[in-house]
């Protein structure tokens, strides 16, 4: 019943199952697995049962149901849900209860989805393994000794473990796609501006996008169709027509041109990941796609570019957490030796609050961001990175342009399968390099998704990444759905 | 590259972070090494390249009104009490802060 968005919605619509039974099953599954996986930080038990009763009552009255009626959807804890704790994975917001719904949450409610709770994440979405959460790491349902990826690791684990058939995450530099790859789920980062950011706790505003996880491509397409569309409360929200993403999954891929960039098959790529991704590309070719080699030469600068821009934006966005308007406030210890001694009581409170409320990775990024924005370094780091960002986008524009251009780019989502918990925590730079294949599409604002590829011999999931031109999610979904149908494991072939 | 404490401390001060000596020592190493990695951007020729702050040319609602700004219409926002509900300290229907002038 919790296997698939479309199946669950269809069964609730026809009355084959009651939404209340679906909600109870989701809660039972969460109770069964969450102790081990730590995927949910807050379970909205009473609220989800109430929502389910509302859906059942609506059906009994003969009122039309929304297209997600009775479908449980987990929410990353960076998304505000009315009257529910929203921590963003931080001690800073440990007790903060949101007074409003994020726009995406309001849209899920309008579509009659069920909202069972909030999922664990790297603090303020800063991380690639979910080990930066103030509430402990999430474990990968496929192998609990491994990370589910990050920063939306809790949402990915919720879907992969069958707690919910879909979830929302946010993706700044790969935080939906990489966890999807590590857990064998489908994860979509839409075009920047496609989905409202209103009510998403901000990390890096020029990059943050909300998107779905789901067990199937069509399930992700349906959730995206619900949350997409202009929102006057987000100034970066586009006035773009919301395409029928679900219908696009039925489009034929014969004749589509698929670009394969050599830069994404470089040193550091796990040989088995490479073999499985190349096999998937050959399979798409046999489905009628034309495979074309493309060049994205500035890819190698994406990690440095991203970590300059994202930390700069984060240092500015996180200035709001100062113990005044919401969240934690800590009184300074005036007797202790330290940098608070010569400050005014107000500034000493800021310092004590931010020192106690933020974790190590968040402080590290605030320091980096403050440095690259500071006088004397702005041009060399921040302005330079903005110019390299232009070049990274230009690479994609050239690959997609003209009659010889490609309809989509296909490549690995991450260079390795899920790594062991603790494997990279001592070396922040090696953790940053984990994002090497997801960052370019983020910097270019392009839609991109991860769809499960053939797993490794050890049974670890591998992600196939599909990147499309701006607002061309339909091409991306068509290719993803074609691969999902053709995938050897799905058809029972070796 | 180790980041000297004399350079780290002013940055922490700007960022309103009160770091312990142990944190300062740890960050001096990490921040230095990461900044050193970032300097690889110097190798990219960006002559004549325009900086990009935000990738998508946003079609602001304002474009409909034609004057560059969103139409100025009063709409329902967050209620005063709701805005104050999450505050650590409230006085006289406002956010209360420690003194900041002598």
Provide the fold topology.
The complex is a heterodimer of chains A (494) and B (102).
Chain A: H1 5-14, H2 19-37, E1 40-43, H3 45-60, E2 73-76, H4 103-110, E3 117-119, H5 153-160, E4 166-171, H6 177-183, E5 186-189, E6 209-214, H7 217-227, H8 245-248, E7 257-261, H9 271-286, E8 290-294, H10 302-317, H11 345-357, H12 360-373, H13 378-400, E9 408-412, H14 428-433, H15 439-444, E10 448-452, E11 463-467, H16 473-486, H17 488-491
Parallel strand pairs in A: 2-3, 2-4, 7-8, 7-9
Antiparallel strand pairs in A: 1-3, 4-6, 5-6, 5-10, 9-11, 10-11
Helix pairs in contact in A: 2-3, 10-12, 10-13
Chain B: H1 5-14, H2 21-38, H3 62-65, H4 80-85, E1 90-91, E2 94-95
Antiparallel strand pairs in B: 1-2
Structure description:
The complex is a heterodimer of chains A (494) and B (102). Chain A is α/β, with parallel strands linked by helices and 494 residues long. Chain A is built from 17 helices and eleven strands. Chain B has a domain at 5-43: Histone, subunit A. Chain B has four helices and two strands, in the order ααααββ. Chain B has a two-stranded antiparallel ribbon with strand order 1-2. The relative contact order of chain B is 0.08. Mean pLDDT of chain B is 85; it is low at 58-65. The interface between A and B is large, with 78 and 56 residues.
Quick take:
The complex is a heterodimer of chains A (494) and B (102). Chain A has three domains: 5-248, Alpha-Beta Complex (Amidase signature (AS) enzymes), CATH 3.90.1300; 257-304 and 380-491, Amidase signature (AS) domain (Amidase signature (AS) enzymes, Alpha-Beta Complex); 325-357, no CATH class.
Largest interface: A-B, 78 and 56 residues
Mean pLDDT of chain A: 95
Number of strands of chain B: 2
Shape label of chain A? globular
H and E string of chain B: HHHHEE
Give the quaternary arrangement of the chains. Answer: heterodimer
- Please state roughly what percent of the residues of chain B sit in beta strands, choosing from under 5%, 5-15%, 15-25%, 25-35%, 35-45% or over 45%: under 5%
Runs of chain B in which pLDDT lies below 50 for 5 or more consecutive residues are 58-65
How much helix is in the residues of chain A?
A: 25-40%
What is the general shape of chain B?
flat
N- to C-terminal distance of chain B = 41 Å
Tell me how many strands of chain A there are. Answer: 11
Order of helices and strands of chain A: HHEHEHEHEHEEHHEHEHHHHEHHEEHH
Helical content class of chain B? 25-40%
Number of helices of chain A: 17
SSE-based structural type of chain B: mainly alpha
Largest sheet composition of chain A: 11 strands, mixed
Question: What spatial order of strands do you see in the largest sheet of chain B?
Answer: 1-2
What is the name of the CATH class of one domain in chain B?
Mainly Alpha
The fraction of residues in strands of chain A falls at 5-15%
Total of DSSP H or I helical runs spanning 4+ residues of chain B: 4
């Amino acid at each position: 019943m919790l296997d698939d968005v479309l199946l669950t919605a269809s069964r609730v619509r026809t009355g084959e199952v009651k939404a209340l039974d679906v909600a109870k099953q989701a809660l039972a599954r969460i109770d069964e697995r969450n102790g081990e996986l730590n995927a949910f930080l807050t379970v909205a038990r009473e609220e989800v049962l109430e929502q389910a009763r509302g859906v059942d009552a609506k059906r009994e009255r003969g009122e039309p149901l929304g297209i997600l009626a009775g479908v449980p959807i987990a929410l990353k804890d960076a998304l505000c849900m009315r009257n529910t704790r929203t921590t963003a994975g931080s001690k800073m917001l440990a007790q903060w209860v949101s007074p409003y719904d994020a726009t995406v949450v309001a849209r899920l409610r309008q579509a009659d989805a069920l909202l069972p709770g909030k999922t664990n994440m790297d603090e303020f979405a800063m991380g690639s393994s979910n080990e930066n959460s103030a509430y402990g790491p999430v474990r990968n349902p496929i192998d609990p000794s491994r990370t589910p990826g990050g920063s939306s690791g809790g949402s990915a684990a919720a879907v992969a473990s069958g707690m919910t058939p879909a979830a929302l995450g946010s993706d700044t530099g790969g935080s939906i796609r990489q966890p999807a790859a590590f857990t064998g789920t489908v994860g979509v980062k839409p075009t920047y501006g496609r989905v409202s950011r209103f009510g998403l706790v901000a990390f890096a505003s020029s990059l943050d996008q909300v998107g779905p996880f789901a067990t199937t491509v069509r399930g992700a397409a349906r959730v995206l169709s619900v949350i997409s569309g202009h929102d006057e409360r987000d100034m970066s929200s586009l006035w773009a027509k919301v395409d029928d993403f679900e219908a696009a999954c039925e489009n034929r891929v014969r004749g589509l041109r698929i670009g394969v960039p050599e830069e994404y098959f470089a040193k550091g790529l796990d040989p088995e990941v490479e073999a499985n991704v190349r096999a998937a590309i050959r399979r798409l070719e046999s489905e009628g796609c034309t495979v074309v080699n493309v060049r994205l030469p500035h890819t190698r600068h994406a990690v440095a570019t991203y970590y300059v821009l994202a930390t700069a934006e984060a240092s500015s966005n996180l200035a709001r957490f100062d113990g005044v308007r919401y969240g934690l406030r800590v009184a300074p210890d005036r007797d202790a030796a330290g940098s608070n001694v010569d400050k005014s009581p107000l500034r000493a409170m800021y310092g004590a609050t931010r020192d106690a409320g933020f974790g190590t990775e968040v402080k590290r990024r605030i320091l980096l961001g403050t440095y690259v924005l500071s006088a004397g370094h702005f041009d060399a780091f921040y302005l330079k990175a903005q110019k390299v960002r232009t070049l990274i986008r230009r690479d994609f524009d050239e690959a997609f342009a003209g009659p010889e251009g490609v309809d989509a780019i296909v490549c690995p989502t991450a260079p390795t399968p899920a790594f062991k918990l603790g494997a990279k925590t001592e070396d922040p730079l090696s953790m940053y390099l984990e994002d090497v294949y997801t960052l370019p599409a983020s910097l270019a604002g392009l839609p991109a998704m991860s769809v499960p590829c053939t797993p490794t011999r050890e049974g670890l999931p591998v992600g196939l990444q599909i990147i499309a031109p701006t607002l061309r999610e339909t091409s991306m979904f068509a290719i993803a759905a074609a691969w999902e149908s053709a995938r050897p494991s799905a058809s029972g072939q070796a | 590259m180790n980041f000297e404490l004399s350079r780290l401390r002013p940055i922490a001060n700007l960022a309103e972070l009160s770091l312990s000596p142990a944190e300062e020592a740890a960050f001096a190493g990490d921040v230095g090494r990461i900044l050193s990695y970032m300097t690889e951007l110097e190798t990219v020729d960006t002559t004549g390249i325009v900086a990009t702050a935000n990738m998508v040319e946003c079609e602001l609602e304002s474009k409909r009104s034609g004057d560059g700004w969103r139409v100025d219409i009063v709409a329902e926002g967050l209620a005063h009490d709701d805005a104050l509900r999450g505050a650590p300290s409230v006085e006289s229907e406002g956010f209360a802060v420690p003194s900041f002038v002598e």
